[in-house]
Amino acid sequence: MNIPNSLTILRILLIPVFVGFMTYRQYGYALAALLCAGLTDALDGLVARLTNQQTKLGEILDPLADKLLLTSAFLTLSILHLVPSWVVILVVSRDLILMLGTVVAHVTNIAIDITPTILGKGTTLCQLTYVVLVIAMIWRGMKIGALFPLLLVMVAFTLGSGLHYLYRGYRRTYLNGSVG
């Protein structure tokens, strides 16, 4: 256990705090918890690189923490009727399909490249920006309809990156001869 992994675990522990604040409609505190979790995300990667403390656990835990945080945020926003249910279905389905593909590849000993792509990082940025802005606008009593263009961009990135990851896995597995 090192500092970067400890920061990642702190991010995971902030998820129920964030969800609790959202559930009780304490949007300012929820936003603070979410931003604190985002800060730990930035810090864990920076500390890991600067101190050469990158670990296998961190490679698994960091993206898992991101997925858990975003999934929890979207589910909570949907339950509170702040975002459409179809958005949550899209976001969660994409992540579940990608995780399932990774597990299947691991179990079948198929080597796949799980490094994040620019599209994948863009998707995370769009999703996080959307969630932060929805909560900030709700907290300030503003109408979230103004975020519709960002919602469309986020949906496009989510679909595009999901399809890109699937294509990349297919290409690596079937077109490069990993399965015969």
UniProtKB/TrEMBL annotation:
<feature type="transmembrane region" description="Helical">
    <location>
        <begin position="68"/>
        <end position="89"/>
    </location>
</feature>
<dbReference type="GO" id="GO:0008444">
    <property type="term" value="F:CDP-diacylglycerol-glycerol-3-phosphate 3-phosphatidyltransferase activity"/>
</dbReference>
<keyword id="KW-1133">Transmembrane helix</keyword>
<keyword id="KW-0594">Phospholipid biosynthesis</keyword>
<keyword id="KW-0808">Transferase</keyword>
<keyword id="KW-1208">Phospholipid metabolism</keyword>
<dbReference type="GO" id="GO:0016020">
    <property type="term" value="C:membrane"/>
</dbReference>
<protein>
    <recommendedName>
        <fullName>CDP-diacylglycerol--glycerol-3-phosphate 3-phosphatidyltransferase</fullName>
        <ecNumber>2.7.8.5</ecNumber>
    </recommendedName>
</protein>
<comment type="similarity">
    <text>Belongs to the CDP-alcohol phosphatidyltransferase class-I family.</text>
</comment>
<comment type="pathway">
    <text>Phospholipid metabolism; phosphatidylglycerol biosynthesis; phosphatidylglycerol from CDP-diacylglycerol: step 1/2.</text>
</comment>
<feature type="transmembrane region" description="Helical">
    <location>
        <begin position="118"/>
        <end position="139"/>
    </location>
</feature>
<keyword id="KW-0443">Lipid metabolism</keyword>
<feature type="transmembrane region" description="Helical">
    <location>
        <begin position="146"/>
        <end position="167"/>
    </location>
</feature>
<dbReference type="GO" id="GO:0046474">
    <property type="term" value="P:glycerophospholipid biosynthetic process"/>
</dbReference>
<dbReference type="InterPro" id="IPR048254">
    <property type="entry name" value="CDP_ALCOHOL_P_TRANSF_CS"/>
</dbReference>
<dbReference type="InterPro" id="IPR043130">
    <property type="entry name" value="CDP-OH_PTrfase_TM_dom"/>
</dbReference>
<dbReference type="InterPro" id="IPR004570">
    <property type="entry name" value="Phosphatidylglycerol_P_synth"/>
</dbReference>
<keyword id="KW-0812">Transmembrane</keyword>
<keyword id="KW-0444">Lipid biosynthesis</keyword>
<dbReference type="InterPro" id="IPR000462">
    <property type="entry name" value="CDP-OH_P_trans"/>
</dbReference>
<dbReference type="Pfam" id="PF01066">
    <property type="entry name" value="CDP-OH_P_transf"/>
</dbReference>
<feature type="transmembrane region" description="Helical">
    <location>
        <begin position="6"/>
        <end position="24"/>
    </location>
</feature>
<keyword id="KW-0472">Membrane</keyword>
<dbReference type="InterPro" id="IPR050324">
    <property type="entry name" value="CDP-alcohol_PTase-I"/>
</dbReference>
